[in-house]
Amino acid sequence: MKIKDITVVALRLYALLLFFYCVNTADRLFLHFYYPMNQGDPIGKIFFIDGITSAILYVVVGILLFRFSEKIAARIVPANADGSLTEIDPSSLLRMGLGIAGAIFLVNGIRILSQGSALLYFLPTDSLSQIWPNMGPEQKAKFAEAFVLIISGLVLLMGKKGLTDFIRGIRTSGLPKSANEQEITEEKHDNL
């Protein structure tokens, strides 16, 4: 079993988890329709909009992950230069873990952003320029959290090779380099 196969399985398990999250959000939708008194309440409307957007997000991302797990795994753990699949080693496991963590961060960031947008919709404002001053510190913190999660998710999902090399460099700093790594470093230094 190669690391790409393990990555495909991990992505499909995460897609399955997203389907369970979709079922879990159904309780908010059920409460909205079961208790009619919540329908006129802004908090009930926020929970309803958050439940619908979360359920749609979980289903769409789950289907995309299931459908394109092979292509996403090839992007997360690319093949070697000769076209052979990458063997299981600590570096490839780290790349796989960072890529899947990026997918998780991205989905959670989008969910938090949709929840914050639902909150903004019900703020009592006359114009868009009054939205930021009328938001409380909790809403501002939620938007900051969403943007940090989305950006870090994209960085981890798309650019984890550089991050993996950085973490490996931190982990092995101070250790003597192998002869092969010294030759590569000297070639790069000579080319500068």
Beta strands, count = 0
User: How many alpha or pi helices?
Assistant: 9
Structural class: mainly alpha
Residues in helix, %: over 70%
Q: Give the rounded overall mean pLDDT.
A: 75
Strand content: under 5%
The helix/strand order is HHHHHHHHH
Number of domains: 1
Gyration radius, rounded:
22 Å
Distance between the termini: 40 Å
Query: Are there runs of 5+ residues with pLDDT below 50, and where?
Result: 188-192
**Approximate shape:** elongated
Largest sheet: none
Overview of this structure, please?
By secondary structure, the chain is mainly alpha-helical. It has one domain (3-78, 91-171). 77% of the residues lie in helices and 0% in strands. The protein contains nine helices and no strands. It has helices at residues 3-24, 26-34, 42-67, 69-76, 90-121, 131-134, 137-158, 160-171, 179-191. α1 packs antiparallel against α3, α1 packs across α4 (69-76) and α3 runs antiparallel to α5 (90-121). The longest helix is centred in the middle third of the chain and has 32 residues, at 90-121.
